[in-house]
Amino acid sequence: MNARELQLGLLLLKEGKLTKDQLKKALIKQGEIRRFGRHQRLGEVIVKLGLLSQAEIDACADMQERISAPVGDHTPLGLLMIERGIASPSKIYDTLVEQQFSEGMLGEIMLEKGMLTRDQLEELLRHQAAERASVELA
Question: pTM of the entire structure?
Answer without folding.
Answer: 0.62
